[in-house]
Amino acid sequence: MRIRSLSLLATGCVWLAICLNSSTLRAASRPPNQDASGPAQNQPGYKAYAANCAICHGDHLEGDLPSFPPLVGVEHHMNDAQIVAVIQQGKDRMPGFPDLKGEELKDLMSYLRSSTDSAAKPAAGISSSNASNGAIEAGGALFQQSCAFCHGRDAMGGETGPDLTQSKIVHADVDGDKISEVVRNGRPEKKMPAFNFSAPELQNLVAFIHAQAAHAVASKGGRRGVSVEDLQTGNADAGKLYFNGAGTCAQCHSATGDLAGIASRFNGLALEQRMLYPEDVKSKVTVTLSSGKHIAGILDYLDEFTLGMRDESGTYHSWPVERIKYKVLSPVDAHVELFPKYTDADIHNLMAYLQTLR
Amino acid sequence: MKFKCVGSFVVFCVVLLPFVFSARAVGQNLDPADLVKPPADTWPLYHGDYSGRRHTRLTQIAPRNVGSLALAWAFQTNQGAQIKSSPLLVDGILFFTVPDNVWAVDARSGHQIWHYHRASKGEHIGHRGVAMYKGWLYFTTPDCHLISLDAKDGTVRWDKVFADPTKGYWSTMAPLVVKNHVIAGVSGDFDNLTGYLRSFDPETGAEQWQWDSTPPAGTANSTTGGMTWMTGTYDPDLNLIYWGTGNPTPVLNGASRPGDDEYTCSIVAINPDNGKLAWGFVVSPHDTHDWDAVETPVLVDGDFHGHPRKMLMQSSRNGFFFVLDRTNGKSLLTVPFGPVNWNTGIDAQGRPIPDPKKEPAPDGRLIAPDEGGLTNFRAPSFDPKNGLFIVDAHPSYSIYFAKPADGAYGWAGADYGLWGKGVLEAIDYETGKIRWSHFLGPGGSDAGVLTTDSGLTFTGDSFGNVLALDTRDGKTLWHAGTGDDIESSPIAYELDGREYVMTSSGGVLFAWALPVASREQHQASARKP
């Protein structure tokens, strides 16, 4: 009893320190090693991190949501090649750091990876098994009211919503960093609405989701969701034939080009969903103004009345559609045209073939 | 003298007549007779009238002037839940809901008269609105209470529990008042439970009857489910209420419930006085895709291929448009209104024949439409002038999985939407042919539809624009961005000679009307020979 109380007290102190760290002390220059959740600062990669990354992602990988994602546990949702690609080429608003290479890059990678270990420690907070039963219970009640219809009462999938216990976001989540972002912002592309929960409500909700995920891992049988083993009924040779022939996939894609190694980057259901419709693909647009000037870029918004786009410099422009001429290039539409043509065997065969592209 | 008499008459008309006509209106009292022929200054039922057509006779807002339609007022609920209800309008007061909440708002100004809140456990996915009988409102809650409120001030008159939320029931629906019956239904998909309708005495809340859509849980080789999610319609001449029922349970695994699974995914006709079934029509025999058939059973009297008919029309979530003879439930037309790939044909009774190869499987089946369906709970509209049934459609594809480990309880499988879009489809009710389509954006729109006698179709797109279209060809005549998803069906009413169209988005209610000057011009032009 006594030992347990002490450890609870210690956990509480650490939690308090994290809270203080992330709120009151944010503006001040923080002394190192105050934050228990980040990796140690005496590691070789910390220097490169502090010089290049910390200004946005925080001194201790904690990020600053919603603008700057935390990097704690980044290993859970990106592989090394993907992380290196982002570092060197940038992503969205993040600039590339092409000068980070060789030993320096290697050290930085090892620094980022070390965060995974420290994040798994119980002291990391509510993602741990130390979340109080009260928080889980309160989160469960909120979940039943607002989330259960889509995600199932047990968070294992329901009407239209996926099984959260097998969700990559949930697995990568630390202290609610990923889950809170999704809950607050919604996922409009998947029709998930945004929710205005308070910070304590979010903490409870996150505690419940993690408890359900832990419960799902611990229990066998009765699982819903789709495992990689379920998606092995196709014939890879037939899939290759379809890819190069009737499926017309080869008109846009190449097994040695854009799809090389696709099965290393995605697997299971995520690969199949991406194969059938990659929903994050942006369309290109060329706008011709009344002056005759052309502006090309990425389509950002298009309803019946307004077109919005970002030009090559990332600057946003919009016009009433009747004032301009425009041409949208949306190669992803070819996936939609295939839907009425597929047999289920075509899909399983194609899936078998793509799984050979490692 | 003569002049004076005329003058007095004018004074009488201008000053006193409104009081004569509004005398009935004093004191929030809905005459049950008004439910059969609702006056223009009311919207006293979920669908505005018993037919479910959502077509208004009002003509002040018309194709020629809708371009100047403007905001009369907006009402902010200042809370997170999206409005999915249709307001009622009685005696100048609007009554509408989100889960746990009812508001009474002045329909002229948009200011709040009262707000009722009752916290509850249970599913809070949405709420469709209240019902009204005389001076009383009827409100269902997520924990399955039917609560009667005083329409004057929102105080509770009585509170009856009509299902057990601990078993997995909840409720979202606006009850239907027919004569001296308040009829409420239940929801629930995560447990193998029997769906039912229950009728209550509007004065005392005493139970009058209950109709079960499926046998009791545990009956061998039998289905459960058939939830009664949505408000039905009513034919006073035939004295029948028409209701859609939800999917069977277990949801994606049909092995334990062989056969058609009556009366799940069905349209049923029930006598409102005793709860006896007159007929039932299974819209999705042996459903394994969660396609509730709870979309509005729209009642239309008119010619069908040259013969006068009492029809019932439904654009169903499973992707088919049905026309039935509502006197006996016999099929007149069954035709898809978008991509559908789960049936092998149509049987002799006009029911789609499910393809066993398209039941959810361990390695997945590509299914059109997706689980949300080719349409969902938001209301379609029937326009009698153009003979068009207009529905917010959702062409879509998805993959459905089920394996033995998923069991035979509740959901019993998993499904994932792949792609979808929103399209307003104008269906010729005699042939099922699409006369025009209007693209509503990627993903899909969640807005219902209202048509007007002046030739307008109101709905919303997937970006949150509220749209007014020309009903003849679907061309856009007016729009306004509302800043959030439109999750409800529009209504229309006239107050003080001014027509309002009401829409919502997010937690905000919007009342749209012609600017006053423009309205005067309209009246002047209407007076010209």
Could you provide a short overview of the structure?
The complex is a heterodimer of chains A (358) and B (529). Chain A has 358 residues and is α+β, with helices and mostly antiparallel strands.
How would you describe the overall organization of this protein?
The complex is a heterodimer of chains A (358) and B (529). Chain A has 358 residues and is of the alpha+beta class. The longest helix of chain A is centred in the N-terminal third of the chain and has 21 residues, at 2-22. In chain A, α6 (133-146) crosses α10. In chain A, β1 (284-288) and β2 (294-302) form a beta hairpin. The model of chain A is unreliable at 1-37 and 117-129 (pLDDT under 50). Chain A folds into 4 domains: 2-124, Cytochrome Bc1 Complex, Chain D, domain 2; 133-218, Cytochrome c-like domain (Cytochrome Bc1 Complex, Chain D, domain 2); 229-279 and 335-354, no CATH class; 284-330, Roll (SH3 type barrels). Chain A has 15 helices and 5 strands. Chain B is mostly beta strands and 529 residues long. Helices cover 6% and strands 40% of the residues of chain B. The two termini of chain B are 30 Å apart.
